[in-house]
Structures are given as structure tokens and as C-alpha cells.
Amino acid sequence: MNPDEIKKYFEKNPPPVAVDWKPWAKISDTQKFLNSCYTSIASFKDPMTSALRIGI
Fold first, then answer.
1. What is the secondary structure of 12-36 as a DSSP string?
2. Cβ contacts of residue 29 below 8 Å, gap of 6+?
3. pLDDT along the chain (56 residues), means of 10
4. CA dihedral 26, 32, 33, 34 (to 10 degrees)
5. Which of 4, 18, 38, 53 counts the most CB atoms within 10 A of its CB?
6. Which of 56, 37, 40 is nearest to 48 (CA)?
7. Which helix (H) or strand (E) holds 10?
């Protein structure tokens, strides 16, 4: 899946507002969490491509 497909999937199938996986892993606002994930996915640079670009 590309970043746009991931975003469309979660827009059509939104998670619950709050998620309590473990006592140390609680998400109180899944929309904020997903927006952070979208930003990370969109700005991710493939490590191999980056290594090739700088000649490693």
C-alpha cells in the first residue's frame, strides 16, 4: 500500500477514538496519532536509496 491508500483506508475505516493496548501504551486521540503516522510515512526515505545516493 502506498501512503495515499493507507490514509484512504483509515478514513473509510476509522479506529476507535481511544485505544488502550497496555498500561504503558495508551492512545487517547487516534486521529492525532494517525496524522503523525501519515507524516512519518510521507517523509520516510528508503535507507538503501539514501545510502546509494551518498555512495556507501
1. HSPPPS-EEEETTEEES-HHHHHHH
2. 17, 18
3. 83 84 83 86 66 52
4. 140
5. 38
6. 56
7. helix 3-12
Give the alpha-carbon dihedral of 21, 26, 30, 34, to 10 degrees: -90
Task: Single out the residue of 13, 2, 8, 5 nearest to residue 44, CA to CA.
Answer: 2
Give 36's contacts (C-beta < 8 A, 6+ positions apart).
none
Q: What is the pLDDT of residue 43?
A: 77
pTM of the model: 0.58
pLDDT at residue 47, rounded to an integer: 62
Give the pLDDT score at 17. 84
Amino acid identity at 55: G
